[in-house]
Amino acid sequence: MDVYLPIANLSVNGLFIVLLGGLTGILSGLFGVGGGFLTTPLLIFYGIPPTVAAASAATQVTGASVSGVLAHSKRKGVDYRMGAVMVGGGVVGALIGAVFFNILEALGQIDVVINILYVVLLGSIGSLMMREALTALRPSKSGETAQPRKRRHHPLVAGLPFRWRFYRSGLYISPLAPLILGTLVGILTMLMGVGGGFLLVPAMLYLLGMSGNVVVGTSLFQILFVTMVTTMTHALTTKAVDIVLAGLLLLGSVLGAQFGTQVAMKARPEVLRLVLAAIVLLVALRMLYGLGVQPDEIYTVSPL
Q1: Eight-class DSSP state of 23
Q2: Helices marked H in 10-49 — which ranges?
Q3: Residue 142 located in a structural domain
Q4: Domain range spanning residue 287?
Q5: What angle do CA 68, 16, 46 make, to 5 degrees?
Q6: Number of domains in the chain
């Protein structure tokens, strides 16, 4: 079933795009990530221009996040106060990212920058997550009892002023920490078309010291609103949002997120982190390979 994408200016297999959306929706419900870190590279591998892939993936992430937030909210897995602070930072970051995006696009370097960002960020975060997951699983194989890790925020976070209480997360920290974190994720969302969950979830756990039972839902809450702003900004400035592509992705992702949430409630967290780390590293390696291989068409022609 071929479908024509007006902004990307090419035809794609509609069923493949729907299945891709379903896969990223499952990841959204499982790990609290928007799934854009996987959607954008796979769309690029499929032949979608990186600018269109990044802008349209951000739209798809919004739909997947709505479904995930509703599911986690039912079991009180969302810290709305923490999420609101990060949303404020994310909106500012998305606007800053829009400026960077337009500058890089004018210089003709946006495609290369998107690919490099994926390799660096996914490679680094995937390696850290893999090491942490393997460390957590090792005691169970040898019959030893794993010592629970004491949950506490990073010393840099502890030194920030103006502390607030975030009751659902069990924290008493400065709102500046989640605000700065949200801003960084907002910039990445604009540039890469990702929800930022692959960066946000580890940071919420190991930098902010949040309780694990609210990390996924709060991450999706932040991602929901930041990707909404990102989508509107892309539509008004870069005009790279392909509504047909985004619609096909949304069709699969909304259903997939519900399934992923159900699995997440039953699976071991250590195993889930190991699986996510493996996926992240595979995508990073594939992006690195693409940067070093000569493309089939060295030159492209685009209208002025």
Answers
A1: H
A2: 14-31, 36-46
A3: no
A4: 2-137+154-292
A5: 105
A6: 1
